[in-house]
Amino acid sequence: MTTHPLLDLPPLSAAHFAAIEDRVAKLLGTSQDVVIMQGEALLPLEGAIRGTAGPGTTALNLITGPYGQTFGNWLRDCGATVLDLAVPFHTAVTAAQVGEAFAEHPEIDFVSLVHAEAATGNTNPVGEIGEVVREYGALFYLDAVASIGAEPVVPEAWGVDLCVIGAQKAMGGPAGVSAVSVSERAWARMAANPRAPRHSYLSLLDWRDRWLTPGRKALPHAPAQLEMLALEACLDRIDAEGLDTVMSRHARAAAATRAGVSALAGGLEPYVYDAVEAAPVATTLRTPPTAPASELVARALEIDPALPLAAGGGALAAEMIRVNHYGPYASAETVLRCLSVLAEVLVERGVPVGSEEAVRGAVEGAWG
Q1: Which helix (H) or strand (E) holds 112?
Q2: Do residues 330 and 318 share a domain?
Q3: Whether residue 181 is found in the same domain as residue 253
Q4: What is the CATH number of the domain that holds 361?
Q5: How do the pLDDT tens digits run along the chain, 368 residues long?
Q6: Which residues span the domain enclosing 190?
Q7: DSSP state, 315?
Q8: Which of 9, 62, 139, 295 is most open to solvent, judged by the fewest CB atoms within 10 Å of its CB?
Q9: Is the domain of 127 the same as that of 263?
Q10: Are 143 and 215 contained in the same domain?
Q11: Beta bridge pairs of residue 163
């Protein structure tokens, strides 16, 4: 039988698994427990909510995109009372809005938030919101799947009790492995919750009791070895480039996309109006009514199937294009290629656009 480098691998030891967890904790700048879970980020996202919420929980669910809506559904399914604070998807939630919600409903004891909504292209001021949440003593749950690697994510400094990350976006890695940092307050909430998953693939308590508490000496089940090694490779690559450099590259990609779209002048405009509220992981663009986003993207991908472009989901498919400049796609070359092909498609539809030289100059000027 012919050996294969991706198949014929030695077993991943508990010590190796724990070492990768420690590196994720370092990436997050936290001394809190970090658990790597063997599945896409929806696994710890749902597990953390089901572990800490139930009847008697009053949750403030901050909605700036589709994932916030999903979290509200999970919270209600757990029996929690849910207060949705939704803002237009082209903007961000503010700490003042969160403070007003607490003033009106001081019984709130759980806050859920998406840091960066890649689907809508906005990012939220987690540090400022965290100050308000700490003031009122609520548990703070954060989805940082899209933001990790693209912008600062420091859950312990922000007072975040449950912070979920995934490797598939700005980290440039696999989708099949994810991690969550857990505060002592969150562990206590889970332990006191009779509805928290136990003896379940969703259970964080199982990881605590079978993995963390015994000293991380024996894995509770066979690890997803290829995904774990890929996650380790992502961490290696981030260490080699430097986290600050990786985040800077994503910020420049976002700035370059916005600048290039302005120079393109072809009916496209940033979906998130204020650049301060725009996520560096992906830039969303609003399309003209005469050029449905889904049709523009489909034609662009016919021209170049490798472009990191997507139409918005659901109702947004008619008006939003997403430029996914994350991971290896956070480059001036990728931004230029995306905008060049979109310009070609717009011209095909009779929409006038700016010159290629103007777009290139804007992108390169913003990139620096």
Answers
A1: strand 110-114
A2: yes
A3: no
A4: 3.90.1150.10
A5: 677 777 778 889 999 999 999 999 999 999 999 999 999 999 999 999 999 999 999 999 999 999 889 999 999 999 999 999 999 999 999 999 999 999 999 999 999 999 999 999 999 999 999 999 999 999 999 999 999 999 999 999 999 999 999 999 999 999 999 999 999 999 999 999 999 999 999 999 999 999 999 999 999 999 999 999 999 999 999 999 999 999 999 999 999 999 999 999 988 999 999 999 999 999 999 998 888 999 999 999 999 999 999 999 888 999 999 999 999 999 999 999 999 999 999 999 999 999 999 999 999 999 98
A6: 14-240
A7: G
A8: 9
A9: no
A10: yes
A11: 142, 181
Reading the block at residue 68, the tokens are 């916030």
Six-digit token string for 337:
């290629």
Task: Evaluate whether residue 95 is within a structural domain.
Answer: yes
Q: Which two tokens stand for residue 351?
A: 């929409």
Q: Are residues 164 and 292 in the same domain?
A: no
- Contact by Cβ (8 Å): 85, 93: yes
Contacts of 100 (CB under 8 A, 6+ apart): none
Indicate if the alpha-carbon torsion angle 35, 39, 45, 50 is positive or negative: negative
E strands within 251-313?
269-270, 283-286, 309-311
- 3-state SS class at 322: strand
Using alpha carbons, select from 57, 95, 106 the residue that is nearest to residue 77: 57
